[in-house]
Amino acid sequence: MNKTNTCYLMSNNTCFNLLGMENRTENLKDRILTRRLKLDLSQQQLAERSGVSQVTIQHLESGRNRTSKKLVDIARALGVSAEWLMSGVSPSKAATDRYESNVSLAPQPRRSFEYPEISWVQAGAAKESVQELNLADCERHASEAWAGENGFWLRVVGPSMTPVFQEGMVILVAPDVEPENGQYVVARMIDTDEATFKQFIRDSGRYYLKPLNPSFPTTPMDDTWEVVGTVIDGKLAKSVFR
What we know:
Blueprint: E1 8-9, E2 15-16, H1 28-38, H2 43-50, H3 54-62, H4 71-78, H5 82-87, H6 93-101, E3 113-116, H7 120-123, H8 127-131, E4 140-143, E5 152-155, E6 169-174, E7 184-189, E8 195-203, E9 206-210, E10 219-221, E11 225-236
Antiparallel strand pairs: 1-2, 3-4, 5-6, 6-11, 7-8, 7-11, 8-9, 9-10
């Protein structure tokens, strides 16, 4: 089936398709991620509210999937129109008002896990060293995403991952999750133990660490780099508001 001819039914009973929007789909992943973080939702929470799997959200946010047949449901869970989510173009104000008046997020049961927030120096240490850290005094943050027994939070520093990830946010790192193309990772230089947060890119058999801020350079990954873990959640830390 030709996806561009698919009619997506909106809440006001109008429909739109993806014809003429192919040149904009590269921003779909950014709009989903930005809106999810603004609502302080994990990928799992958004998936449950949308009636899809967490993998579906993950693939949309990484750019692996360019659209979804559940786009309307995902948009509703995010409190926006599917048309805006797909194209970045807002419907008329009247249509928006009608749409938002129908938005209602049903309460969902929550299960969360707590992980310690560690420093970038600690994150740059070898995996064996991280496992041996005394984390009793570390600030802890909850997430509905399972990051494994050795999961940890890091606080975003600097502007290299703006506008999506702002300084002061915390990101949840899953050391045992292998990254897919387009996902976000924490990587370290083996010789210096210097850690960095970037987007993981695979292109023509080569790997790169790409910042979201175009003012910063993309770094080729060679045998001097290794991935510490895959970022699976992100939010503003409570301590930001103290």
